[in-house]
Design brief:
Globin-like; alpha+beta; 3 domains; Heat Shock Protein 90; 57% helix; elongated; five-stranded mixed sheet; 400 residues
Amino acid sequence: MSSEPPTPAIDERAKQLSRNADMRGVAEALVRQRASILEGWLRLASRQPFHAGHPDRAVADHIPALFDALTDLLSRDTRGEDIEAPMDDAAVAAAARSHAQMRFEQSLGPVAIATEFRLLRQEVSRALRIQLDETETIDDVVSSLAVVNDALDGATALALSALTDRIEIVREDFLATTLHDVRQPIVLIQASLVLAARWIRREPLDLVQLTETLDGALVATHEMSHLIETLSDASRAAMGALDVIPEPVAVREIVNDVLDTLDPANGSRVILDGSLASDAVVYWDRQSIRRVLANLLTNALKYSPQESPVTVSVRQDGANIEIAVRDEGMGLLPEEKALLFQRYSRSPEARSRGLPGLGLGLFACKGLVEAHGGRIALESDGRDQGTTARVFLPIGKPDS
C-alpha cells in the first residue's frame, strides 16, 4: 500500500503575499460564477477522449463539492496569518479523493483524472479573467490563484495516491478470486491427456474412447482460453486501459468465430434468428466483440437448462447494430440487472445453485462495449423467466 503523499507546499512568494491578502472578494466572484464555471467544466470534460460516446460519465457530484470547498477556503479571513496548505482542508481532500474513486470505478485512469482537475483550474482562471472586480488588488488575485492551483495540484497528487492504493486492492482481489478458477481447467486438461496417453498404449486401440478423452481436453482448453481472455479484459477495464482497434468486419464472421469454439452439444442449442443482419459490415475491434459475444453465449448456456435453446439475433437500426442473446434460464430480479455489471458481482441464485463463475464476464463486456461507444443491458421478466442480453453498437466509419 502506498502512504499518503506529502502535502504540496504553497509557493513561498504566494505564501508571503497571502499573509496580507484578502481573498474574500475573489471567493465572492467565483461563487457568483459557480454555475458558469461548472457548466464550462462539464462541457470540456465531456469532449475528452476518455468520455467519448459517454458524456454522461463526465457528471460527478465531487467536482462541485471540490469547487465549493475551494471557495470556502478562499472566503476565510487569513490576513496576518500563514495560510494552511489547501490539502490540509478536510473538505478539499475528501472531494478530491472521492472523485478519484468514482472515476476509477468508471474504469478511467490517472491521466483522465488529472485532466479533469486541470480543466477545473482552467475554468476558474477563465472566470477570474472575465468577471473579477477591478478593485481587487494584484496581491489578492495572485494569492487566490496560488491557493487554487496548489489545491488542485494537491488534489491530483492525492487522487493518484488513492488510485494507486485502489489498484493494489484490485490486484490482490483479482489474484485471490481467480486462482481457483484458473486451476480447474488446467487440472481437467492434465487429466484428459494422462488418460489419452493410457488409451494410446493399450491394444487394441479404442479410437472412440481416445476421441472422447481428447475432446474433453479440447473443451477444457477452450474454457481456459475464454477464462484468460475474460480475466485480461476485466483487468484492463478496471485499470482504464481498454484499447480497441476498429477494422472492417462482417457481423457474420464474428458470430461464426464464436460458434466455432462451442462444443457440439452447446453448439446445437444455439439458434440464429431469421432476421440476422449478418451481412452488415461494421468497424469494430473484431476480437473484442468476439469476446463479448462469447461471454454472453457462455452465460446463456450456463444459466439455462441443458435442453433449452439460446437464440442469437442481430438487427440493424440505422447507424447502429443490436445483438441480442436470449435464453430460457433462471432469469433475473429487477435489482440484479445493473448489479451484475459490477466487478465480482453474481446473482445470489447462481451462487445458491452452485454454478461456477467469477463475476467478471459482464464487467469485461461492459468495458469492451463502451470502448466502442456502445451500451449493454440485461432484460428479464423475473426468476425462471429467462434473460436477454442486448448489445447496442454503432456501425462506425473509418473516419469516425
